[in-house]
Write a structure and sequence with these properties.
With 199 residues, this protein is α/β, with parallel strands linked by helices. Helices cover 55% and strands 12% of the residues. The chain has 7 helices and 5 strands; from the N terminus they run αβαβααβαβαβα.
Amino acid sequence: MLEQQIEQHFIDSADLKYQSAQTLSKPIAQAVQAILASVTSDGKVLACGNGGSATEAQNFATQFVGRFERDRPELAAIALNADSALLTAVAHDFDFEHVFSKQVRALGQAGDVLLAISNDGNALNVMSAIDAAHERDMTVVGLTGKGGGKIAGLLRETDVHICVPHVRSARIKEVHVLVVHCLCDGVDSQLLGEQESPL
């Protein structure tokens, strides 16, 4: 019984990824182009999210500054959820809603990209960060699920929305990991050329 339940998780995850491939490939490619345009013009990517989405923001920044699968020059990215002192100070002195937006206003510049990650698209602090990014004339890449929530209504025509077509958080997060890897690989392939697949 337990083994069947575990197997079903693998099947459901694989099914969603297979079904999402065609739907998400276009917005992911658009996001790659937006990020590429920024980092090749001395811009940067600011990434944010809560909980599991925070780990994805950090995962993205790590692979961007360090590397994904190939050595290359460093690319500028910052995970806004990584500084616990700053987060707790802003949350205490102001409100948790402003923990990302204050950083976007302090660090963001025109031409930068905000990678805003929220499973249900309704995280107030992520929405505030989007508003701040628009004030700074930044492009927003919204990475959501569950129909996009309120974030879908905040995004502009010049932004990119990558919305996983599912309602279960675990499945959405699994696809978000894959999307982050696609973003990193897409930027690398545009900068370095296609990589031969290992046998």
